[in-house]
Amino acid sequence: MTLTLRPLIVASGGEARLAVAGLAPGRAYRVAILPVREPGTRLEMDVQADARGRATWAQRVTWQGEALCDILVDEGQTPAATLYLYAAPPEMLRRRPLRCDFHVHTTYSDGRNSPAEMVLRGRELGLDALAITDHNQYVGSREAIEVAERLGLGLLCFAGEEVSAPDWHLLAIDARAPIEQAPAGYAGLRAAIDRVHSLGGRAYLAHPYWTTSRRHHLPPADYERLLTEGGLDGIELLGDVAWEDNLRSLARWSELGVEGGYPILGNSDTHGAAHTFGGFWTLVWAEAQTREAILRAIDERCSVACGLWVLEPPGQPARPRLQAFGPFDLVDLAIFLDRHYFPLHDALCREEAELGRRALAGEALPEATMAEVAARLAALQTECWAPAPE
Ligand SMILES: [Zn+2]
Ligand SMILES: [Zn+2]
User: N or C, which end of the chain has less CB nearby within 10 Å?
Assistant: First the structure.
């Protein structure tokens, strides 16, 4: 018996219409809801499965965060199954989580694969948004936008480049045109940030504490000056640098605090389809899957820098574990979504990528099948999120 509880995400403080499917038709059940943050609270109710094995009820959502939903049979206290739901702040119900990577290289600079290959691999990895950011090269990102649109993928691509000087790298995202200049030194970095802004883009500092040739690439004194003087739109908190350099980024950012600090990104900085792609990403809670809404959500600090940390206990198989850094409420929700939503989302992304791959290899684009997968993904979100309160 496979039980499903819908929706998964409900508004805290309101009332939600919950439904469990997969029950024995006509049978009575007791449901116990156990909010994880309130060890003393247990909310119980009796429900009755209909002829199709489905029970629905109205639930007051008095708690915040994750809750276990035990399905008890015959008033026994041992659950026949445990399902999960999450009570989020009401304003979060208007947003959907999008997995984004804003730092990816291709053959337009020192990467191994073409923009089209990275677009398909990105979707296969479950990305919802992607920016190709070659070193001082803008054209690859335009090519990725064109490919993703032509194939009808649910992967939104951004214009981008990694503006690269001898002593700093800056991600220019969604600028109208190439940045073209990357003069060395702090003044050069500031000029590049201004140029990104004048072209309507966002300027995110890449890998602040990256060590190369045994020393930091960007002088930490320049980074400190930038943090003080402002102007950056965000910081790449996690990425493909030595792990210790990510720790330095995290340490400095946590000293600044969520309020005083900058918006944050996690990016793969991958140089190929089989490099670090999928190992780091930014989880963005946006009100729509549009470039404007995604960038605005990052501005509003509605993002979490994520990655996979591979745990290798001696003598046991390696296990990838989620890492997530950001405000507590977003990290808590990211953990829940990683377990209960993203596996379903990712399976549909893989189907879409497979269709796209065949089309790129010369087969006719299966537009109807592509549209059907997109509709299933939209339906999954409608099922998993309760309607946003008025
Ligand atoms: Zn770089
Ligand atoms: Zn890079």
Answer: C
CATH topology classification for 95-344: TIM Barrel (3.20.20)
CA distance 127 to 134: 19
Judge whether 86 and 9 are in contact, CB under 8 Å.
yes
Which ligand has an atom closest to residue 267 CA? 2
| Per-residue pLDDT reduced to its tens digit, 95-143 | 999 999 999 999 999 999 999 999 999 999 999 999 999 999 999 999 9
Cα(120) to centroid of ligand 1, in Å? 23
Ligand 2: distance of its center to the CA of 211 in Å? 13
Q: How confident is the model at residue 180 (pLDDT cuts 50, 70, 90)?
A: confident
Q: Do 237 and 264 touch, CB atoms closer than 8 A?
A: yes
Please tell me the number of the ligand nearest to residue 105's CA.
2
- Average pLDDT over the chain, rounded to an integer: 95
Q: Where are the domains positioned within the chain?
A: 4-90, 95-344
Q: What is the pLDDT of residues 40-61, one digit of tens each?
A: 999 999 999 999 999 999 999 9
Distance 84 CA to ligand 1 centre (A): 40
- Ligand 1 centroid to 165 CA: how many Å? 9
Question: CA 155 from chain center: how many Å?
Answer: 12
Q: Which residues have CB under 8 Å from 372's CB, separation 6+?
A: none
In which band, very low, low, confident or very high, does the pLDDT at 310 lie, cut at 50, 70 and 90? Answer: confident
Choose among 75, 71, 67, 57: nearest CA to 23: 71
CATH of segment(s) 4-90: 2.60.40.230
How many C-beta atoms lie closer than 10 Å to residue 104's C-beta?
34
Nearest listed ligand to the Cα of residue 268: 2
What are the phi and psi torsion angles at 183 (to 5°)?
A: -70, 145
**β-strands 280-286, 96-104 pairing:** antiparallel
